[in-house]
Design brief:
The complex is a heterodimer of chains A (105) and B (146).
Chain A (H helix, E strand, L loop, with lengths): L35 H27 L6 H33 L4
Helix pairs in contact in A: 1-2
Chain B lengths: L2 H27 L15 E9 L18 E10 L5 E4 L11 E4 L4 H36 L1
Antiparallel strand pairs in B: 1-2, 3-4
Helix pairs in contact in B: 1-2
């Protein structure tokens, strides 16, 4: 089960037994199976790093520290694209949450 | 291999073309220079471009993974002086004239240098539009989700 959803360890949902006991997935996970939240936080940290890299390059360019115009522009563009992608992922998660919270019991 | 690295490859080409434009501009500017620090007229310079394998990704945000694609950055590996002998002009009153009254001028053809400068400018433009295309590719990949 290499393609299992992170956060749901294989075998936690036991459909084979007659009682069909469903065990909730443990929120904390081992290091080899990181949960979705830490993946998201890691991605956020990387986007933050890209933004501060772009910031540093623009500052160097404007203060005349020999930074190339194109590398500053590429850094800005990378940070912008990474942010856009993060935003779309976030929108998708929020939409999924709202869809689930709308389920009536 | 991710799409951001395509931007880095084009970025390396932008740097290389900028350096080429710099060297060509220096050739143009010094087309009539008869003395340099080492003695003699200015020597025309050529840039030499070399390929360098792309480094491994520095971040995990791989927007697309194509495995081990062999892609190479471009970089300026050196500056080589032109070995064409200097042009001799008879100007006896010139301070750099030799005993026969001839002055050594660099073997630089301004028209040729202008063509090289145009080449560098067009190469820069071309790589800049490659970056724009990559940006649009990434953006359309993101809008799949939106």
């Amino acid at each position: 089960m290499t393609n299992s959803i992170p956060g749901v360890p294989p075998g936690s949902i036991d459909l084979g037994s007659s009682a069909a006991t469903i065990k909730p997935a443990a929120p904390g996970n081992s290091a080899d199976n990181p949960d979705f939240m830490s993946t998201l936080q890691g991605a956020m940290g990387q986007i933050g790093d890209m933004q501060s890299e772009a910031d540093g390059k623009v500052t160097q360019l404007l203060t005349g520290n020999g930074q190339d115009v194109h590398s500053a522009m590429i850094a800005i563009e990378k940070a912008n694209l990474a942010f856009e992608m993060m935003l779309q992922v976030r929108n998708k998660i929020i939409a999924a949450y709202q869809a689930v919270s709308g389920i009536a019991f | 291999m991710n799409l951001f690295r395509v931007m880095e490859i084009s970025g390396s080409a932008l740097l290389a073309e900028r350096m080429r434009a710099e060297v060509v501009s220096a050739n143009l500017a010094n087309a009539e220079t008869t003395r340099v620090d080492g003695g003699g007229p200015f020597q025309r310079m050529h840039v030499v471009f070399g390929a360098r394998p792309v480094a491994h990704p520095s971040f995990g945000m791989s927007l697309a993974s194509f495995g081990d694609l062999h892609a190479e950055n471009v970089r300026v590996v050196g500056l080589v002086g032109d070995e064409t002998p200097p042009i001799q002009r008879f100007e006896p009153g010139h301070p750099d004239a030799d005993t026969q009254g001839y002055v050594s001028y660099p073997a630089i053809n301004p028209a040729e240098e202008m063509i090289n400068l145009m080449g560098a400018a067009r190469g820069y433009e071309m790589n800049a539009s490659a970056i724009t295309s990559i940006k649009n590719m990434i953006q359309s990949a993101i809008t799949i989700l939106g």
